Amino acid sequence: MEEEDVTPEQLNKIAKQLTGRYERKQPLFDLEADPVVKRYVDDLWQRIVASKKLDIVPAEGLSRMVNADTLQHSNVREIGAEHICHHAWEKLQLTPLLLSAGFTQEQADLAATQVISRAVYPASELRTTRWIKENSAVCELTGSDLERLTKDKLYQSALRLYEVKDKLEKHLSRRTNELFDLEDKIILYDLTNTYFEGEKRHSRLAKYGRSKEKRNDAKLVVLALVANVEGFIKYSAVLEGNIADCNTLSAMIEKLAEHTVGAPAVVVLDAGIATEQNLALIEKKGYKYLCVCRARLKDYQAVPNRLTVLLDTKSKQVIRLKSVVSPKNTDYYLEVKSPAKEKKEEGMKLQFEKRFEEELQKIHTSIHSKGGVKKSDKVHQRIGRAKEKYPSVQQYYTIEVAENEKTVIGITWKKDENKHDDITESLGVYFLRTNLNIKDEVIVWNIYNTIREIENVFRTLKTDLNLRPVYHKKDNATMAHLHLGMLAYWLVNTIRYQLKNNGINSCWTEIVRIGNTQKVITTSGTNTYDKVITVRKCSLPNENLKRIYDILKMNHKPFVKRKSVVHKLELKKDESQQQRLLPPG
Length: 585
Known about the structure:
16 strands; alpha+beta; elongated
């Protein structure tokens, strides 16, 4: 560079601009109008870079350098359990189904948000809304608008989902069979009930009945479920709280064929539903049945040439299986002797005996007390009431009443040892009945034992998914609430079925706890150019969550990082000042 080519003023500008380039203090607007200065600056800068005499960091690297003192973390939310449930939602192809049923994309996204939230955080619509807005990243997965979410929208979404209940159940029944290559050869049918909080004065569903939770003070609603042995629901119905178990079967049988369950599937029933009329209906529709006999067989004989089978159960007890025949019909009967059931019934028998004898002792004391009940008719009434109260034990007691004209002067009682021994021998014994053409004791026992799976379904619904109690006042809201819980159960069972097949038998609550260890967090800091860099990333899953992700064939990160660059406020002020210095165009 020749010094005579430039003036001292130009040299000063060249030096300043070279220093600015090195210190990365470039102006936001290029105000240099002198072509000589510009040409010399560009030429000299290229020579400096080529000579490698200065330690020049590339601009891209400098933009990533953030001052650690400016780092801030915000908007920390749970995402692991939501990610697992969202993956199940997509695997079950529920969004396309809802869209085909007339849902808008916004409504389908909200439905996904609500069902996933129900599975991860089962609570009221108000608490769910608060949890979504403050704790969960579920909206970042489903695409639902977090700002527009309200409890009223969740109420409406649940009602909208209940309107397409039948379509959802048919789709889910077929989809899970396709996903896991299932054949519905054995079908389980049972009922449970849950109670209401509140009076429910004008409800068609809420009725007083026999509560399984011992809440006889509260009105009930009955939930009838058909499930396969893998725990997937095939059909559900919400019924009046006082309906008898045996009166619920006919509607279920009509729905079975529509939900991919074709004959000759085996319907496994509990004793409360297995009336003669219901068994005849099942057989008429082309299905087989296996149930517990409602009443104890009396006139039966062991099948000739069949040995008694002793079977070790998972609970490390030995049960006795014996094939028997009854003159009543041609069905196959299996006598089962269970030590656990025997122990339970023995305890109940002893307790009833004690209470019955206490009642008799009260009558005896009253007879020999001044002012006590001594008239014959009154004493016999008291004895009759005691027998009515404890019918299972009174049958083997002999009671003698000593009378003098119309006054009782004494009462004695004793056990009939022969009858007592017969009753004791029958403790723990019940009978299975089937029209299956199977004569193998172990196979019949194993088929019936699958009914425990529907008990697990009820347990998950009531405990893990908080289906009880029901607080809704209107019947349509009650049915929508129960249906929403069952949709959440579909996600739960889809996940747990895969995990159980790979050795993870944890309950759903534990799986959610493991999932909640993964968070998503927003981190912001200022870089070398005084710009605020904001990054939103997921934390790394721990080893337990990694194993779950690997079994479910899921990405370990729910989404890739999201980055934004924002100018600081001070920078915007400088920028506006420079704009004011520009000459008018």
